[in-house]
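Example record

The entry below shows one chain as it appears in the dataset: sequence first, then structure tokens.
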Amino acid sequence: MFDFFRKHTWLLQIVLGLVVLAFVSGGIYEGYGSLTGNDSSVAKVDGRKITRNDWDLAQREQIERVRRQMPNVDPKVFDTPEMRRQSLDGVVRERVMLAAAEKLHLTTTDERLQRLFVTDPQFAFLRNPDGSVNKDALSAQGMSSEMFAQRLRQDLSQRQVVQGINGTVFAPLAATNAALDAMFQQREVQVQQFATKDSSTKVTPTDAEIEVYYKNPANTAQFMAPESESIEYVVLDLESLKKGVTVSDDDLRKYYAENAKRYTSTEERRASHILVKVDAGASAADRAKAKVKAEGLLAEVKKNPAAFAEVARKNSDDPGSAEKGGDLDFFGRDGLAAKPLEAAAFKLKTDEISDLVESDFGYHIVKLTAARGGDKKPFEAVRAELENEVRTQLAQKKYAETAVEFTNIVYEQPDSLKPVVDKLKLELRTAQNVKRTPAPGAAGPLANAKFLDLLFGVEAIRNKRNTEAIETAASTLVSGRVVKHEAARQLPLADVKVQVRERVVVAQAAALARRLGEARLAELRAAPASAMSEAAVTLSRAQPRDLPGPLVDAILKAPTTTLPAFVGVDLGDQGYAVVKIAKVLGRDPVTADASRAQAQYAQAWGEAESQAYYNALKARFKVEIKPSALLAASATVAASAAAK
């Protein structure tokens, strides 16, 4: 049994990882939120509020799922504004589905729930031999059987909401065939290309032509210097607040002591065991018989400890470990092993053999083969990390109140950023040649599109007033002010003449290529039997033969009522192409698995209809997400993450 859980931990996590989010929608978190008093509303569904606490708990559970599935990944990487919004969207969706299930009277009976649990293979590892719930498996994840039953009941009820859509999707045959033909149909073609680059040496623009091109209003945008600004701005973030935070050595040592477990490596034991299996519901006689057998094996390995592996291979009823001499590899106090077995392993000394250990699976004989972990890093080795963490926590606590003050000052004294700089001891930063869109490689506030939009707003440009304070990252507020604004302007011809000439050469060469191509197209249409020297190729969207996308589209869209068909394709600055379509073939056999493609098309159709139905449900149940709550909730989650 232990070996089974070791191999199937991921499945347990996937099944049970949904529980917390479901309980958010089911009301359990609502009760918890009222107990903690954190009941400020961030959204509403059908008139029922979703509290900030609901959101925080869903976000933490999302991070926990990431941590369980990818133990080596820093969870803070996933604690972003985007992930927080996704977790809120998840809570909203659950609430919408539950509201719909309630309004539609979609319920799951106890009989159906029991039938699903007993018959569905995905729950086999959660069942005891008699079909009851394995409470040890659930409790290892902090779950009771009642909580798990509620989750399943809610999940089934919610599934029924969209099952009527997903289960009745019908993709019309004509639409399906048209879509599949567009993707997989093949055509045998010959392509003659008239490339712009081949004609560029044949054109020589005059100065007059260059000037005409430069002055043409349609081309003006190509030679513009974009509007730009010189700005000054102030950032309030944890790093700026940390500069004013000091921590005493005594406080650091106290924090170190309070968090000793974090700096102590996890204790693990490697053990081997011999299992004499006996079902939990076995008769007294059967249990006695099994115990006698186990006692005999115990006496044998006590007498000759070196034979433990061989005895396990021949006699253990745990097939997963028996073939390895009973070896269970390293494990910690994580509940994956049967509790009595785990407890015994952590009491033994290396190479010591236990007395009989009884569990729900039978009788175990345990031998400890190795131990590791439990080492604690000394204070001095982690002092820098401790100081940074404590200062970050203190700065985070200070951030909430300072953010309000920062926002008020830049708003109430809009003609200068100096008051907020002096009051909060911040740095006045400057930037030159700032554009409306983030520059390549830009970082921080200057990479934030919303901040740049404010700087290029009418109020900021006309009156040179401070922008409103906005959050550009977690626990990061910024306000800016325009010092100088330069409007977009056309650059003098003398400064861009080389670039203008290059554009004229391309335009004239492309025009020449188009004339040559159109002439060739006319010849072929006049004499369809004329031979083309280019090799014939079989082409489809899945196998475009390195041809440009617009050319492939034109080839596959061209009418083929009469063959051969001739098509001229203007490729813009790339030139012109003349195409002879000789044959229309079936769907590409390499990629066109008809049944699979049709199923995928129907699935995509169903997903689109399901999403449309969900959007209609959101409108029906008047989903409201409060923008004013997002900033405050974001700061709270960031503070919680910093305090961990």
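Notes for this example: The chain has 26 helices and 17 strands. The chain has four domains: 2-168+609-643, 184-196+496-587, 228-247+385-487, 265-372.
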